[in-house]
Amino acid sequence: MPQSLDITREGIPRPRIRALSDMIFGLAISIGAWSQLTQKPGSMAVIGYSLLSFGFAFLVLALVWLRYSMVMSVLRIESTALVAANMILLFLVSAEPYLYNLMNISAYVPSPGELNSAYTSAFYALDLGALMIILAFFTYELTKEEKRPVPRELLRSLKLTIYTSIIAAAIFFLSALPVFWSIIVIQSPTVPLRYIMWCGVFVANIGRRLDVRMSSRKARAK
Predict the structure, then answer these.
(1) Residue 55 half-sphere exposure, CB side, CA atoms within 13 Å?
(2) Nearest to 37 by CA among 97, 118, 112, 111
(3) What pLDDT, on a 0 to 100 scale, did the predictor assign at position 3?
(4) What is the pLDDT of residue 166?
(5) Fewer Cβ neighbours under 10 Å: the N or C end of the chain?
(6) Cα(76)–Cα(122) distance, integer angstroms
(7) pLDDT tens, position by position, 93-147
(8) Would the pLDDT of 17 be above 80?
(9) What crossing angle do the helices spanning 117-143 and 44-72 adopt, rounded to 10°?
């Protein structure tokens, strides 16, 4: 008699999880690129802005994908909490290009009755903050004592990554407050403090990733 599959005990096969996530990340990036194609730039300055705008959205998804792929290369989805967190993360990734496109449209084509960029950018900040929280949760799963899938030499680096992700999430959630939209750092073009906070988080994230890679190489060399 064939044995029934206990998803909680056996876990979801890792290749299926990665295939689904890669498809969703790829679609999210493609949608972001397609939204730029729908615009008709009237000058070189507009083209430059469009490339810069798409570059930022691409950087966000690329950094999240790199962290997610690193974790999923060693973490097995074998609990209900991990399955739920994975599905929520993929939903947030799918929503990222939608919210980002809304934010861009509302900033330059304000229509009566539509949300302005103050509100759409706040929703975008909440989306990014939630992504950071889930990535922190996944990284925490790698550090748990039972069935620990990573070398002990990497534990300190992983714990620092968890703290960094939580701090990044707090900054994103904090940036959603109206006060950080009303404070203008650059007047022309208008750049509110909210955008500066986002850029600071991702610059710090890139530096943290480089530190993790160096720690990983040192651990493998020992």
Answers:
(1) 7
(2) 97
(3) 41
(4) 94
(5) N
(6) 33
(7) 999 988 888 887 655 544 444 457 888 899 999 999 999 999 999 999 888 756 5
(8) no
(9) 20
Asked if 160 contacts 167 with a C-beta cutoff of 8 angstroms, the reply is no
Longest dimension (CA), the chain: 72
Which of 166, 198, 65 has the alpha carbon at shortest distance from 158?
166
Give the chain's mean pLDDT.
78
Q: Give the pTM.
A: 0.79
Quote the CA–CA distance of 84 and 127 in Å, as a whole number: 16
Structural contact between residues 106 and 117, judged by C-beta atoms closer than 8 angstroms: yes
Give per-residue pLDDT as tens, 20-64.
Answer: 888 899 888 887 777 666 666 666 766 777 777 788 888 889 889
Distance CA 58, CA 97 (A): 9
Please list the helix, strand and coil fractions of the chain in percent, rounded to the nearest 5, in that order: 75, 5, 20
Separation between Cα atoms, residue 120 and residue 124, nearest integer Å: 6
**Residue 209: Cβ within 10 Å count:** 16
Q: Is 12 helix (H, G, I), strand (E, B) or coil?
A: strand
CA 94 – CA 73 distance, rounded (Å)? 21
How far is Cα 83 from Cα 88, in angstroms, rounded to an integer? 9
Q: pLDDT class for 7, splitting at 50, 70, 90?
A: very low
The two three-digit tokens of residue 173, written as one number: 């959630």
1 burial via Cβ count (<10 Å: 0-12, 13-18, 19+): exposed
Cα angle at 42 between 39 and 44, to 5 degrees? Answer: 105
Question: Do the beta carbons of residue 91 and residue 161 sit within 8 Å?
Answer: no
